[in-house]
Each structure stands twice: as structure tokens, then as C-alpha cells.
Amino acid sequence: MKTSDLAGLAAQNFRESVLRSSLTTAGITVGVASLVAMLSLGIGLQRLADRRLERSGLFDTVVVFSPVRFAGLGRRRLGPAPHKSPPLDESARQTMARLPGVAEVYPDIRVPVLLRLGSRQRLTLVSGTPPSARSSDAFKGMLGSFFSAASPGEIILQTDLARELSSHPAALLGRQITLSYAERQTLPASAPAGKIAPNSENSNLSAGFSVIRRDKTLRIVGIVKREPSAGFSRFARDGALIPLALAESLNAPEPSSLTDALQNHPAQATYARLIVRVRSPQAIQTAESKIKAMGFRTFSLLDTTRNIRRFFAVLDLFLGIFGSLALIVASLGIVNTLVMAILERRREIGIMKALGASDSDVRRLFFAEAAVMGAVGGAFGTALGWAIGRLINAGANLYLRRQHFPPEVIWRLPWWLVVGAIGFSILVSLAAGIYPASRAAQLDPVQTLRYE
Amino acid sequence: MPQAAISDGAAIQASNVSRYYRMGQDVVRALDGVSLEIRRGEFLAVLGSSGSGKSTLLNIMAGLDRPTSGRMLVLGRDLTALTSEGLAHYRRVTVGMVFQAFNLIGRMTVAENVELPMRFAAVERSERQARVLNALERVGLKARARHRPAELSGGEQQRVALARALVNRPAILLADEPTGNLDSRTAAEILALLHTVNQSLATTVVMVTHEEALARRYAERNLHLADGKLTAAEAR
User: Fold this and answer.
1) Which residues make beta-bridge pairs with B23?
2) Is the pLDDT of residue A195 over 70?
């Protein structure tokens, strides 16, 4: 028998016993709806957490440290010994930037500065902020705006610093502020007379650097509560942010400048730390292992990300199991309906066999009827699950609004869940149809057609 | 298994066919060593009282039942050697059946009932409609195609059952008490129809009945069964 004929007969049988079939299908609908609602809630929460993690900048970032280690200072660190590591320089930065999944690599620059605004002044740290930080959650709801271009003379203050500089922080926007910092100037290989004694012991010193105070006037364009977490030690609320290109152009000495000078290669400047930002948290593991293979020490919150993902996987599993329970119970309804159908249609099955239907035709017909119930129940159940999810979302957002939180999408129904739920419903229905279908196929036509 | 024993002109040949049923400790011999031969295009009536084994014989000929022993050859094919799927194919293609109780499916229309064997035979949908109408026209019920069986008289229902039995153009038509539920006038009409089918389509007709008068009128040959054994054979 052709599949189209099989489907036609199954649909006809469904229509003929519409009340019983509908009640059975309603059971499946409720089961699928519960499965869809629970899983879509789990997926929604996971996506919400993923989105938060991605925007936080904590989970898509690997910090790469300079291999320098001071003997006897601090505890022994894991990772390769400094003498086995390449320098953390521009060449290493370029290599890391070419790694798969890496979005950008930039130096973690923090410069001690003196900020002066009128009569008020304050010592603080300014951080170089890459343009990509614009999408960070830290800048949502900020006063003013993010930097207008890659390297303008602009500065963003953190809230506590702004309060120290003015009792009306908002009034600071647009005002000029003076930033005093120490600029590093590399000394030539042959140092001026009197600065370095040209004796035999130090004649092989190739260079050093001097430090000169510089002033720069910047315009305050924004005030933020916290610093975007491009690194892991930046949780202070009284610093300031400047564009990364500007921070690099300040040429301020870093801890690595001293070690570079001591290690006799100041011309080959190295970075104290590089921030490697990957395109998605999933790419962290690969990027981090490749950077480690290059010989650098790294740090990321990969394990934390893993744990969070594991938690959601377990949550989804449990939600799926609980959701499926209702569907499994509903499948018993299918067994009952089909067994009743066999009892009612004994003679009809015998007639079909007498007219040439094979055992497999009869078996397939009952499977098709189970599948029709599964498909109809699955489709309606998915729609109902979607509606329940929307209600949960609306209710949650109503609550969030009352608590003065921004609305969130905590419920998601991806297309694969729609297809999967209907498919699972059909699969469960087919499984429920195994016993009735086999029983119907085994009916003896002579017995069923015996004239009463 | 050799099949050379069958005559060239035989549609059906039963060789020592027996069918026993176990009823608790007892064994019921529904058929007991029946041997017969039915020619192609013959109209044969099997007569006998209730419980004589005539329906059992017909069910074995139809491939609905299997003999306990013996061989049933139909158009040269040994039914006892066929698998369950093979027997289903045989019922789809080679035989058509008409029952005493009509056995139409009540929730289907007349046309759908007649179309049903073609669904199992995977006949193209485009071809079915014409064949349904042709079969109904043959039994004079073309105008009733959209009716439900319950809206028809007994005679009309049996004619629909006949149209259904013929729609796959079988070589053999098996009728189990086709007039058992009909009044004498309608019974005569149905038998006349069976006779027409036998004559016009050269279909071999095997009819089980206990109405000797009608059997003598239409059948070319009558076989008598009693207690599962052939007791007599008479030609018209």
C-alpha cells in the first residue's frame, strides 16, 4: 500500500472516532506543551546567561602574562619557566591575533596619572579601552557617550572619581580635564657623559630610559559606574578610561619596561599583559591551549564557563525529563485508544485482509494512526507550549518592571525545538503503537470474519 | 515441490486437503481429505449443511486459511508454500471474495469500499476512479457511488460487495453464501449477476451455498460436502 493511501486511511479513521481520538490527542498536546514550555524556559535562561557572560567580557577573554618571574618573590606559578618562554612582544601579539576564533589582541595598559580639574586633583589609574568595549554592558545606561573615534582626546570617568571631582558629576560632561603622566624616553645606547660611567663593567649596557612628566588635555565624554571587564583586576570604581590607542601613545613606563631594561633589550619592548578576546566563549578553550603551547602563562574563567554550561545542561536534562513524563503518560492513552480501535474494528481488519491487505499493511496502518495522533498532538502541543512560554515571559517581565529592572527574554523557542518536539511526539506515539499494531497485524481473518 | 500434477485447464486443484481444529481435548475435522479440480471459467457451487466444511474449503481456496495437510493449487501455484505476504498478494491479485454478511465498511462510501482493494494493490490513483465507476456500472449502482452502505438495501449492498470483489480483475471469484441474507427475488438477481460475470469475464466462480435450487439453476457443477468430506458431484 502506498504511503499516501496509508495516511489517507489513518486520517479517515482519526476523523471517524473523532471524540476518542481528540481526547487522546489532547493528552499528547498537554504532554508536548509541558515539554516545550519547560525546555524553552531552560533554553531561554541559558541564552540569557550566555548573553550576560558574553557582554561581561569575563568569559570571552584570556589574559596572557609576561613570562618574567622574580626569583623568591611570591609563590611558584604554574606554567613554563621564564627562560623557556618567548618574549610577550609585538610579534607574539600578531601570532595570537591570527589564532582561530580570536577577535582581537590588545595590551592591558594601566597608567598612573594625576587628573586636574580646576582646583581639584586626584591621583588615579587610567585604562586603555579598545573600541570593541563599546558593546559592553558597562556602557549601558552611562552618562554621556562612548569615545567618538579610535584615538580622540577624550576620557570617561568612573562614578566615584567623578563624584570626587564634582558634586554634580553630570555637569562634568564636555569639560576639559588635564591628565599628567610619566612618559618613558629611551636613552641612546651610548649614554650622555655623567649619566652612566663608561667603565669596563657596564660598557655593555646598551640602553635605558628616562621618565619625563607630560600633560595632556582631554574632554570628559562619559561617566560609567564600572569599568568594562576587559581584564580581571579592574573592579575599582574610581579610575578613568581613555581610548586604547591614546593609552599606547602615552608611552608610559610599565613594570615590563624595568625588566626589559634590566634584561638588556629595551629596544625590543614587551608587554606586561595582553588581553586576547575571542569571538565566543566556546572558542576560549582552543585559543587558550594554543597560547599555552606558544609558551605563555594564561588565565581565563574557562572552568567557570564550563561549570555554568554544565549546570544548564543538567537543568535542561531535568526539565526535559519532567516535560517528557507527561508525554509518556499521554502515550498510554494512545495504547488504550488503539487497543479499543482493534476491538471495534476486528471485522474491518478481517475484511481488509480478505481484500488483500498484508499483515504489514495492517501494522503500518495502526502505526500511521498513532503517528497522526502524535503529529497532531505534537503540533498543537508545540503551539500551546509556545503560548505558555509567552505567558511566563510576560509574567516575568511584569515582575521585573515592578522591581525596576529592564525586561529580559527568559523564554526561547528555537526552530529545532519545534521540529524536535513534534518529532519526539511522533516517535513516542509510534512506540506506543507497537503493541496495538502487532496485535492488529496478527488477527486471524477467518476468526474476525466468522458470521455472527 | 513439483506441480506437474495439475491439469492444464484447472483453475483450482485440491489434493487430499484436510483442516483440523483442536477444541480442548477434541479434534474437529472441518475438512477431511478433500480432493477436487475446478476448471478455468467454471461456475461451481459447493453445497452442504451448516458445519459441513464448505466455508473452510472456500477460506483455504481464498488463502485466508491454511490446510492442516494436503495441497491447494490455484492457477498452478501451491498456496501451502506461500508466506503470509505471498498469500496477501495472492488475495489482492488472483481472487475476489463475496460474503454472506456483505462485509462492507460502514464508514466508507460505496465508491470508497470498491476502491479499497485497489489501495492495497497500489493501483495508481488516476486509474482508480474510472475502475470504481466501471465496476459499479457493471452491478447497476453507479448512481449510488457516494452513498453509505447503510443507505442501501441488502441486495444493493451485495452488489457493491460484488463490484469490490471484481475491481482488481481477479481470475477467480469466491462467494461464501452470497444469497444467505437476501430474499428469494434478490437472491436470484445476485446469482444472475454472478452468472453474467462468469460468462462475460470468463471468471471462475466458486460459490458456497445451501440453496440447491439456485445452485442447480446457475452452476455448471455442484459438489456436496458433509462432515468435511466430498459426498457427491453433479453436473448440470
Assistant:
1) B26
2) no
pLDDT tens-digit map of B191-212: 888 898 888 888 999 999 888 8
Does the beta-carbon distance from A354 to B100 stay under 8 Å?
no
Q: Look at chain A and count its residues.
A: 452
What torsion do the CA atoms of B7, B232, B206, B98 make, to the nearest 10 degrees? -150
Three-class SS of residue A351?
helix
* Structural domain harbouring B53: 40-65+84-235
Please answer whether residues B36 and B193 qualify as being in contact, where contact means their C-beta atoms are separated by less than 8 angstroms.
no
* Per-residue pLDDT tens digits for B76-127: 899 999 999 999 999 999 999 999 888 999 889 999 999 999 999 988 888 9
**Check: complex ipTM more than 0.85:** yes
Choose among A88, A65, A77, A64: nearest CA to A260. Answer: A88
User: Residues of A near B (CB-CB distance < 8 A)?
Assistant: 1-2, 4-5, 9, 12, 16, 347-348, 350-361, 445-446, 449, 451
pLDDT at A418 (0 to 100): 93
**By three-state DSSP, how is residue A96 classified?**
helix
User: Which residues in chain A are contacts of B150 at CB distance < 8 A?
Assistant: none
In a domain, B8, yes or no: no
Q: From CA A53, how far away is CA A400, in angstroms rounded?
A: 20
Q: B32 in a domain, yes or no?
A: no
| Beta strands at A209-224 and A143-144: parallel, antiparallel or unpaired | antiparallel
Strand pairing category for A120-129 and A110-117: antiparallel
How close A358 comes to chain B (CA, Å)? 5
DSSP per-residue codes, A144-211: E-S-SSSS-SEEEEEHHHHHHH-SSGGGGTT-EEEEEEEEEEEPPSSPPTTTS---TTTTT----EEE
Interatomic CA distance for residues B162 and B93, integer angstroms: 15
* Residue B163 · residue B118 · CB < 8 Å: no
Q: Which cell is B133 given?
A: 465507476
| CB of B119 less than 8 A from some CB of A | yes
Inform me whether the C-beta atom of residue B168 falls under 8 Å from chain A C-beta atoms. yes
Give exposure, A265-303, as e/b (b: 16+ Cβ within 10 Å): ebeebbbbbbbbbbeebebbbebbebbeebbbbbebbbe
Looking at chain A, which residue has its C-alpha nearest residue B180? A451
Say how many domains are in chain B.
1
Q: Indicate which CATH number applies to the domain containing B118.
A: 3.40.50.300
Kindly state the DSSP code that residue A295 receives in the 8-state scheme. Answer: T
Judge whether B177 lies within some domain: yes
Q: Residue A33 has which C-alpha cell?
A: 506543551
Q: What is the pTM of this model?
A: 0.65
Neighbours of A375 (CB within 10 A): 18
B120 shares contact with chain A (CB less than 8 Å): yes
Q: Residue A194: left (phi > 0), alpha (psi -120 to 50), or beta? A: left
Q: What is the DSSP string of A100-151?
A: TTEEEEEE--EEEEEEEETTEEEEEEEEEE-GGGGGSGGGTT-EE-S-SSSS
CA–CA separation, A137 and A129 (whole Å)? 14
Strands A154-158 and A143-144: unpaired
pLDDT at A199 over 50: no
In a domain, B9, yes or no: no
For the CA atoms of A172, A174, A176, A177, the dihedral, rounded to the nearest 10 degrees, stands at 40
Chain A residue numbers with beta carbons less than 8 Å from the beta carbon of B121 are 356
